[in-house]
Amino acid sequence: EDKVVQSPLSLVVHEGDTVTLNCSYEVTNFRSLLWYKQEKKAPTFLFMLTSSGIEKKSGRLSSILDKKELFSILNITATQTGDSAVYLCAVDAFGNEKLTFGTGTRLTIIP
Amino acid sequence: EAQVTQNPRYLITVTGKKLTVTCSQNMNHEYMSWYRQDPGLGLRQIYYSMNVEVTDKGDVPEGYKVSRKEKRNFPLILESPSPNQTSLYFCASSPQTGPKVYEQYFGPGTRLTVT
Description:
- The structure holds two protein chains of two kinds.
- Chain A is mainly β.
- Chain A has no helices and eleven strands.
- Chain A is globular.
- The termini of chain A are far apart.
- Chain B is built from no helices and 13 strands.
- The relative contact order of chain B is 0.33.
- Chain B is mainly β.
- In chain B, strands 2, 4, 5, 6, 9, 12 and 13 form a seven-stranded mixed sheet that branches. In chain B, strands 1-3-8-7 form a four-stranded antiparallel sheet, with no helix packed on it.
- At the A-B interface, strand 5, strand 9 and strand 10 of A face strand 4, strand 5, strand 11 and strand 12 of B.
């Protein structure tokens, strides 16, 4: 059974700090890993990573995938209160047309 | 505006009373999916559909039914709801080229309480 584990479960930091969120996975025939941000409602897509070592960047957010060690990190620099959310990691596999989600990391930014 | 819509957004019902949660997308997406989200368990897939008339079970299909008669709609049916189906439900869709599932677009969610 495919498995996605995120850590930490919860994180509270001050505005301006840098945070690193972790996602490890066990999946047969891995195809891609996706990061989502969930504020008070529906998750919104952030990144999709398919190749090892490739960094995806969008403003202050960046993510890297290590296919050998089976994990990904999501980095947020110079955090702002608007970054407060639950961050979800999901993986999908060849031949298995569904996403398996982790339980998420709840990030709280204190002004 | 490209979007996934769900109705109702909130529903309180009683055990055993059949209900349907509708989901519609206006992006001509082939792939649609239903998830439930529970504290400590994350998002778990209930059913998904690769295209019209093609549906398949996700991780937690028991107690649910779906249908995909048209590309844009993917209703979730609870024939006899029970309290353990109290949850936050999300519908999602994604474009699909070949076998690849791209990033999914989520609806606003339906909070269901079964008493």
